[in-house]
Amino acid sequence: AWKTHYLDWEIKNATLTRDCHTVSVATVNGMFPGPIVEINEGDTLVIKVTNKQIYPVTMHWHGIRQFHTNYADGPAHITQCPIQTGGSYIYEFTVDSQRGTFFYHAHIDWLRATVHGALIVHPLKKLPSTYGKVEQEIPVIIGEWFGMPANQYEAGFLNTLEPLENATSITPTINGYPGPKYNCSKGAQVFKVEKKKTYLLRIINAALNNDYWFSVADHKLTVVGADGNYLKPFTTKYLPLLPGQTTDVLVTTNQKPGKYYFGINVGPIPIVGRPPPRIPALAMFEYEEASSSASPVTPKFPNNVTLKPLNQYVAKLHAFGDSVITLPKKLNKDLIWTIGTAWVDCKKPEPCVQKVMGMIQNISFDDPVGTSILQAYASGANGVYQTNFPDEAPSLKVNLTGTDPHYRNGTRGTRVKTLNFGDNVRIVFQNVFAAGILDHPVHLHGHDFYVIGRGYGIYNSAKDPKSFNLVDPPAYNTFGVPNGGWLAIQFIANNPGVWLLHCHFDRHKSWGMEMVFITKNGHGSAQSLAPPLHPLPKCTAGGLP
Ligand code: C2O
Ligand code: CU
């Protein structure tokens, strides 16, 4: 039988020490990462979120479709106004026809740095037989420690043009701890394992601004799923995760009983000017049978000099089991959109200078002020957003050097793209830069999309579609648009409402690398936007009460 889980969360400050920095940061119930939420497919969550710290907050359930519960999705000023200090909001939604590894995180400013946690949905049917007998499931949450409240860091960052890569105060963490290679750490977090057993690692990249390689010393990883969808199993020594991606991995304890570190290191996109690989964040698997004096083995990570390990990994991604779908042949929207950064004038009033901004179709998205797009849409309020998100890119003859005149100057606006219910939508994202910028992890709210193609250079609409995978494309909610290349995705707009699409690097998102879809209602209430289940936080202007 399905269950309803009632949770009471306080977003409040906790004083924590990591990497020798003691800071008071926002957390869920005082924990970093927040509590693990574990439910079964079909269950309902009713989570009352009360804001007990100074920054306005909202909560997002990353990867959960929110069919008929658009008001529980959570991005600030997109589906709701933020919960102010002292206020609360109840997020209620049912997780239907989805299972796997998800997470929740604050969806405003950079609060998600410390306000996040695992959301695990156990399948209705049991795990596919390819999972074998799983002895234990272990959530592995990748995070970052800023050495100061992340919102303060953000404010400083947005006021300068300094690339974040130059910042020294960011420490990677595994389940909240950087581990033994960092100062002021009390050794590694230890997970006891038995020999000749299989463990399911549910790995979540909740970090704000870095992609990571994950690896376990001396053990092979069998990848079986990602973003809540099954993948055709394959083995690898290490796997890449962009912020917003999750991966399910099996590890069999078939090595000599001992102590084996596992963890993350910065990767896999080689960046011009990036400092040498940082120090990995590590935790440890310790075989029950290991002798206490055994010295731990450290994992290896690929060096970030070529894209080969990343491309080899991506080539192995195929949907599996009930994650394989047949995509309809007829496209209702066939779009080619550019993504990258450009210079735009900062917001008035003066004085202001030109700033680097994040762009999709050369437009930097401005959140509406004092209301949300969803509330404006549902109430028919005028003037909050425009529906003229451009279909044509300024130019697709991008030179990929970052000096293309078409992409030197962008504009800003609150422009949305309207879809009809049931539209079969294909988007090719063309990255307008070659060097010096990371892959952009594009994340779509309210849907999974299918990754049908990916390549380097300028997308060729005559040639490249011939190589698209329309047979078993892997389903994701977050996937990288390659540095100096393109990514082709497809999805069905079968979720009426307002859905954000954005780069899951927070620094790019706060630069405006985001846009919004509004999917119109179809027929009858089953295909229509449903009203909010609980009173929404107060907006300061317009919108619903
Ligand atoms: Cu995980 Cu809109 O985000
Ligand atoms: Cu980006």
Automatic annotation (TrEMBL):
UniProt enzyme class: oxidoreductase
GO biological process: lignin catabolic process
Compartment annotation: Secreted, Extracellular space, Apoplast
Domain Plastocyanin-like, first and last residues per copy: 11-124, 138-265, 400-522
Entry's EC annotation: 1.10.3.2
Cofactor descriptive note: Binds 4 Cu cations per monomer.
Pfam family, one: Cu-oxidase_3
InterPro entries: Cu-oxidase-like_N, Cu-oxidase_2nd, Cu-oxidase_C, Cu-oxidase_fam, Cu_oxidase_CS, Cu_oxidase_Cu_BS, Cupredoxin, CuRO_1_LCC
GO CC entries: apoplast
Keywords from the UniProt entry: Apoplast, Copper, Lignin degradation, Metal-binding, Oxidoreductase, Repeat, Secreted, Signal
rRNA-binding among keywords: no
GO molecular function annotations of the record: copper ion binding; hydroquinone:oxygen oxidoreductase activity
Cofactor(s) listed in the protein's UniProt record: Cu cation
Enzymatic reactions: 4 hydroquinone + O2 = 4 benzosemiquinone + 2 H2O
Protein purpose: Lignin degradation and detoxification of lignin-derived products.
Family the UniProt entry places it in: Belongs to the multicopper oxidase family.
Name by which UniProt lists this protein: Laccase
Source species: Ceratodon purpureus
